[in-house]
Design a protein that fits this description.
The complex is a heterodimer of chains A (300) and B (227).
Chain A (H helix, E strand, L loop, with lengths): L1 H11 L2 H4 L7 H40 L2 E4 L3 H17 L3 E6 L2 H12 L12 E7 L6 H11 L3 E4 L6 H39 L1 H9 L4 H32 L9 H4 L6 H32 L1
Antiparallel strand pairs in A: 1-3, 1-4, 2-3
Chain B lengths: L1 E8 L9 E8 L4 E5 L6 H8 L7 E6 L2 E2 L5 H8 L2 E4 L11 H11 L8 H10 L15 H13 L5 E5 L7 H16 L3 E5 L3 H8 L5 E6 L2 E4 L5
Parallel strand pairs in B: 3-8, 3-9, 6-7, 7-8
Antiparallel strand pairs in B: 1-2, 1-4, 4-5, 9-10
Helix pairs in contact in B: 3-5
Classes of the chains: A alpha+beta (300), B alpha/beta (227).
The complex binds adenosine-5'-triphosphate and magnesium ion.
Chain lengths: 300, 227
């Protein structure tokens, strides 16, 4: 609770108290730079993580819809083979549903290539069966063998399967992105702690004077904490803006591939990016406060 | 106000004791001189009196509260009732004399702008009105001592402890500072001045009823008659 109050006091500010610590010092600039560089890196890690996440989600969805069975047979055997295929599929473990597409659906699928007036019924067009897998999935090799025996015209197209490891890779990439962000946060905390310690050590004399005139630990710590928090906030703001600018400047052509074009921020992704500076400030606040109170305890 | 009860102190734990069995009671409105050779422990003694050091044994009570049971915040708060003129009058060199004098107000969270009139009066009392906007390193020794005194009394403390307030200034300036301290005592403040300058003590005896303490050989004694 007092921490929340401290944080509020930081925002409202006490300029007067701020002045008791000498204004400059290398550690202040170190903090600004560190926070800026880390925010910049965080933007990329975040973009990577979000893009990988989107990719994993999209591919994952496609995987769930997954396979199709194509039956090419002479017109007169088509219906029989389709029925046979459906029966096989029904008996195959790992398949949730299997459904023959209606002529209208097939026409819709082909329309982009042949126009809307295609007389599907009269043309030797293969019959498509849409297969929805269960979570466990089916065994494609086993299914193929059975189909070969029972439905000679059937061709199992499980083209989306090859994406399964890719989805796993994208998932790992997303996780790596978040781990990077966590590490960046921890490294920021460590560096700001070091900078704060250096600053506190350099200002031992100032601390002694403040103690002499009756300053509490809380007062002295706040003077340092406020400075570092504001520096970190400023640096992180700058770093975030630069990072977002750099991401925005990535080539935006669709032939650059799904992944790279997907690297920008969309929708809720922006929210995450906006959170970077305040989170950096929070990290600096916690790190400096910890460092200050510990140093003051030791200096007693 | 400030009481020491059988106090002993040594800097290194378990090492030679600088002094032991020291008892003293500073009653309100009293005026004490603390004398003794250099290195006898005058500064150390004053630090015990304002809680900057804690006794190796024995008890120190500040305004009735046992120092041993006070946290650092408690000490900080009691420090607001004790004005200290440090031996080498520590200032914040990046703040002006005015701001340094107002520092106790600032750290107590008081509104300094509301105290500007008081501050100006205090600065003129110690003769520093002209130098109010200077930085401490630009001050002469005497000016520093007077600024330190002004800072020590800005909170209207009950007690003023001064460590060699006339340390590195000429006789005339020393007399002037003593007069300020005597004036404070007449206003009811409790004063204790540590000094090795016996001439100063002798000169003050005509102006104020003072007890003269002597620290040396590990003991604190009353020394009045021989001066
Ligand atoms: N922080 C310290 N650590 C260890 N020893 C110290 C420390 N401060 C002072 N001393 C020693 O304690 C003794 C008393 O020091 P103190 O400063 O109290 O003397 P003093 O009477 O004020 O001397 P002076 O008149 O020179 O100011 C000295 O021998 C000094 O070297
Ligand atoms: Mg001394």
């Amino acid at each position: 609770m007092t921490r929340l109050a401290d944080l509020l006091a930081l925002v409202t500010g006490d300029r007067q108290a701020d002045r008791v610590v000498p204004p400059t010092g290398i550690s202040a600039w170190l903090t600004l730079f560190t926070a800026g560089a880390m925010a910049f890196l965080t933007v990329f890690a975040l973009a990577l993580s979000l893009a990988a996440g989107r990719l994993a989600d999209r591919w994952g969805e496609e995987l769930a819809r997954s396979a199709t069975l194509r039956i090419s047979a002479p017109q007169d055997q088509m219906e029989a083979q389709t029925r046979a295929a459906l029966k096989v599929l029904e008996e195959t473990p790992g398949i949730a549903t299997a459904r023959a597409l209606s002529p209208a659906e097939q026409r819709a699928l082909l329309a982009p290539w042949f126009g809307p007036d295609l007389p599907v019924e009269t043309l030797p067009i293969p019959q498509l069966i849409e297969i929805v897998e269960t979570d466990e999935g089916f065994d494609p090799a086993g299914l193929r063998l059975r189909l070969q025996a029972e439905v000679p015209g059937a061709l199992l197209d499980d083209h989306t399967r090859w994406r399964r490891p890719l989805v796993r890779a994208a998932d790992s990439l997303r996780l790596l992105g978040w781990i990077s962000i966590g590490l960046i946060g921890a490294a920021t905390a460590a560096m700001i702690t070091l900078a704060a310690n250096a600053s506190l050590a350099a200002n031992a004399q100032v601390i002694a004077v403040l103690r002499l005139v009756g300053a509490t630990d809380h007062y002295i710590a706040s003077a340092f904490v406020r400075r570092f928090t504001l520096r970190a906030l400023g640096g992180a703001l700058l770093g975030t803006v630069l990072g977002l600018g750099a991401v925005a400047l990535l080539p935006d052509t669709s032939d650059a591939g799904d992944f790279l074009t997907g690297l920008g921020f969309h929708g809720a992704g922006w929210l995450w990016a906006v959170l970077i500076p305040p989170l950096a400030a929070l990290v600096a606040f916690a790190a400096t406060r910890y460092a200050a109170l510990r140093t003051l305890r030791e200096l007693a | 106000m400030i009481e020491l009860d059988n106090v002993a102190y040594s800097y290194d734990f378990g090492g030679r004791e600088l002094f032991s069995d020291v008892s003293l009671k500073l009653s309100p409105g009293s005026f004490h001189f603390l004398t003794g050779p250099s290195g006898a422990g005058k500064t150390t003694f004053l630090k015990l009196c304002y809680g900057a050091l804690r006794p190796s044994s024995g008890a120190v009570r500040l305004f009735g509260e046992d120092l041993g049971e006070m946290g650092r915040d408690g000490v900080a708060l009691s420090r607001r009732r004790i004005g200290v003129v440090h031996q080498d009058c520590q200032f914040l060199d990046h703040l002006t004399v005015r701001e340094n004098v107002a520092l106790p107000l600032m750290v107590a969270g008081e509104d300094v702008t509301a105290e500007q009139a008081n501050l100006a009066e205090l600065l003129s009392w110690v003769g520093l009105s002209e130098r109010a906007d200077a930085l401490p390193p630009e001050l002469s020794g005497g000016e520093r001592q007077r600024a330190a005194l002004a800072r020590a009394v800005i909170m209207s403390p009950d007690v003023v402890l001064a460590d060699e307030p006339t340390g590195n200034i000429d006789w005339e300036m020393a007399q002037r500072l003593m007069r300020l301290l005597v004036e404070l005592n007449r206003m009811g403040k409790t004063i204790m001045i540590a000094t090795h300058d016996l001439g100063l003590v002798r000169a003050a005896k005509s102006q104020v009823q003072a007890r003269i303490l002597r620290i040396g050989g590990g003991r604190l004694q009353l020394a009045g008659a021989d001066l």
